[in-house]
Amino acid sequence: MAATVTLEPAGRSRWDEPVRIIVSDLARGQPVTLRTSLRDEKGALFRAHAYSVSEPGPFPGIVDIFGVGGGLPEYRASLLAGKGFAVMALAYYGYEDLPKSVETLHLEYFEEAVNYLLNHPQVKGPGVGLLGISKGGDLCLSMASFLKGITAAVIINGSVANVGGALHYKDETLQPLGFDQNRIKVTKDGFADILDVLNSPLEGPDQKSFIPVERSESTFLFLVGQDDHNWKSEFFANEASKRLQAHGKEKPQIICYPGVGHYIEPPYFPLCRASLHSLLGTNVIWGGEPRAHAMAQVDAWKQLQIFFHKHLG
Predict the structure, then answer these.
(1) CATH number at residue 201
(2) C-alpha–C-alpha distance, residues 85 and 23, integer Å
(3) Taking a C-beta distance cutoff of 8 angstroms, is the pair 85, 77 a contact?
(4) Strands 219-225 and 253-257
(5) In terms of domains, do 236 and 177 share one?
(6) What is the pairing mode between strands 59-65 and 86-89?
(7) Which one of 96, 118, 151, 297 has the minimum C-beta count within 10 Å?
């Protein structure tokens, strides 16, 4: 059967209107090259091409978790799905019937997501991966520490302590790391710098917020922006490494990026230097120098894919 190409909308369209091209009636796994060309009214030739191979699966599975912005960001999961992964973008508060805050979270909810992926016919076992940034990073560390079936975890500027609210799992509770708002600094532009607000998880009662990473059977990759002004991500990554090694676990891979801020996004996303902090209700700086941050996002995207293919493949 010959392939069918459908163009929507049919006929002419303006350049600011999206065009959808659908190729159907293909054999399973059939490689496809689609080429298009256009000569404008001045005679200039524009050409484009795309390659596609419909892989049958199953694929390595990943749970993707963001920070305290809430809702359900799906763009990173969508991009990774195009790289050969089965990805679940997981909301955990501020979305539909989920909790309205992070004040109290239950790890059983996250366990359901892991088990769903593990049992999905299009997900390759025996374990799944975790990808978390900011608050999503410490949630991924907690998941890897308490839950079964997690093989690899990438933590992007995450905390080694539970932050923001109590985290419950069965008969155990991780209390939130303490903080002192009096340690907030104000930049010359009037933004809050919250880098020093959190207490150390190595001292006093705050030690009870330290995530028991030594329980984990996962392999870890920490991606760290050394100009992160949300919290001390490099310190947290190093403390996680010390705890793991002290209990005979494998030393995690830590990649540090000088001049890079908190929000390490996929490549070519603009640097977010400051924005509203959902929990504090005020505008804060996130750090980062534009050139260094842009280059780090390209490298970090490559590194996390290499890591997941190695440990989930």
Answers:
(1) 3.40.50.1820
(2) 22
(3) no
(4) parallel
(5) yes
(6) parallel
(7) 96
96 plus 26 within the same structural domain: no
Catalytic center residues: 134, 228, 262
Domain that holds residue 277: 59-312
Domains in the chain, number: 2
The domain spanning residue 38 has which CATH number? 2.60.40.2240
123 lies in the same domain as 262: yes
Q: What is the full per-residue pLDDT of the chain (313 aa) written as tens digits?
A: 678 889 888 887 776 788 888 888 888 778 888 888 888 888 999 888 777 767 778 999 999 999 999 999 999 999 999 899 999 999 999 999 999 999 999 999 999 999 999 999 999 999 999 999 999 999 999 999 999 999 999 999 999 999 999 999 999 999 999 999 999 999 999 999 999 999 999 999 999 999 999 999 999 999 999 999 999 999 999 999 999 999 999 999 999 999 999 999 999 999 999 999 988 899 999 999 999 999 999 999 999 999 999 999 7
The C-alpha atoms of residue 62 and residue 150 are separated, in whole angstroms, by: 9
Residues 34 and 74 occupy one common structural domain: no
Instruction: Count CA within 13 A, CB hemisphere, residue 289.
Output: 7
Query: Are 224 and 257 within 8 A, CB to CB?
Result: yes
- Both 95 and 152 in one domain: the answer is yes
Between CA 94 and CA 42 the distance in angstroms is 51
Helices assigned H by DSSP within the chain: 75-81, 107-118, 135-146, 233-246, 290-312
